[in-house]
Amino acid sequence: MAGPELLLDSSIRMWVVLPIVFITFFVGVLRHYVSQLLSSDRKLDLEQVSDSQVLLRSRVLRENGKYIPRQSFFMRKHYFNDAETGFFKRVKRKVVPKNPMTDTSMLTDMMKGNLTNVLPMILIGGWINWAFSGFVITKVPFPLTLRFKPMLQRGIDLLSLDASWVSSASWYFLNVFGLRSMYSLILGQDNAADQSRIMQDQMTGAAMAMPPDPNKAFKSEWEALEVVNHQWALESVEEELMARDLDFGGIFSANNS
Amino acid sequence: MASLSEMYDVGWEEMRDKLRKWREDNCRNSEQIVDVGEELISEHASKLGDDVWIIYEQVMIAALDCSRDDLALTCLQELRKQFPDSHRVKRLTGMRLEALERYDEANKHYDAILQEDPTNTAARKRKISILRAQGKSTEAIRELNEYLEQFVGDQEAWHELSELYINEHDYGKAAFCLEELMMTNPHNHLYCEQYAEVKYTQGGMENLELARKYFAQALRLNNRNMRALFGLYMSASHIAASPKVSAKVKKDNIKYAAWAAAQINRAYKTELLTATRELSGGKLFNRTYY
Prior knowledge:
Number of helices of chain A: 11
Protein name (chain A): ER membrane protein complex subunit 3
Largest sheet of chain B: none
Subcellular location (chain A): Membrane
Family (chain A): Belongs to the EMC3 family.
Membrane topology (chain A): Multi-pass membrane protein
Pfam family, one (chain A): EMC3_TMCO1
Strand content of chain B: under 5%
Radius of gyration of chain A: 29 Å
Oligomer: heterodimer
Radius of gyration of chain B: 24 Å
């Protein structure tokens, strides 16, 4: 390992490392409560709920259809998949593409999301950078290449300093992502302080209960249902049942509720 | 009159936990809930914290069952004060009106909820139960069908519909509803058994065969289902006794019926004997009040 081993002042640990951890944590908790206050109720569309349940039913038919008689299974398959009258063939939902720029509810949601998540991150990151500049905080345990130096060592212009030594801003960002598990421990699952999840949501597009295009969902469900065959699970149920004596285990006992 | 906590030497925490257990298990022991709940909210309301609201709801519904309108009204007023705009509380108001048989007012309440929120399933289901309470089965069936067209996944509703069809002796449609339930709950032996019974009632060789198979399935899922065992015996012997079956089918069914009869005998002989021995050994009063 190239580069000298630096000995850092222990007051760095007390006055910089720990305060940054606390600041990040409390700002995260604050963000969670603020976003809860600002969050609006998501109005569920009747059609969406209905469609999602229909898809669920079709999936159940595919998976558990073997428990109902052959006739009933084919009756339901016909209801869904028939060429002219089948549900998946007949029903075409009008798909309104949700343009984020013009759809007002999505716009306000996006703005609220930005306000509660990105803005504090930028502000606090900048403040930390300004307040705790000019010295290294800690050393990351793995070696880094020289290209990381300008990113991780803001404000320190030492050419020979190993890239593993990082400044306070990078420690702050490390905390932001690292404290995610702490948040779920304290605030419970599905909390708004979980930044990376929010970013994931933004990347996958509209995070709604139904995929934005129900027609596509219908089509894929139709294909899946077409290929399913009916293997009746009850073909030889009597033989299996009568292979051994029944286990009555305390059937008439007083403690049996 | 001594309070429950003195009679049974339980603290308020135990009462609260018991209420929670009944709530989670969906028990309908309304009289017990009213007794325990009334004491809990009159003596210990401040110690319950935020739990008190859900206990109010639970006690209110139990009070309606026991026609304790005074208690129901108290609970409802507390809930209304705390949650003035809640649909859930409005539904409770409607339920109280139903209990007082003021069905038109109750209907108006539910319509108001549905106007604000068309996806509210609770209000729709209450409207259907009003129809059922008034004895208008055909309309209830029609409304329930429409409801199920939109909310295909509601298992409670499918079960209710199967009950309504059975009452109207429309066994084919009842069987359809039970099939839905069997698909979504493949390991529930009670649905299999109920389906088998409907098929048996429908009659006809095919249906009897199906009935026998589903009785067997119910037994496979739960060996202790006595009713299914009897059903298996009856359907097998019925098929065997029918003149139109082939010799092989007859032989098979006689074998099934004989096996079922042997199992029944075994159950009543050995198990009942052990149970009687237990009882006479002084274990009769082992059960506690709850």
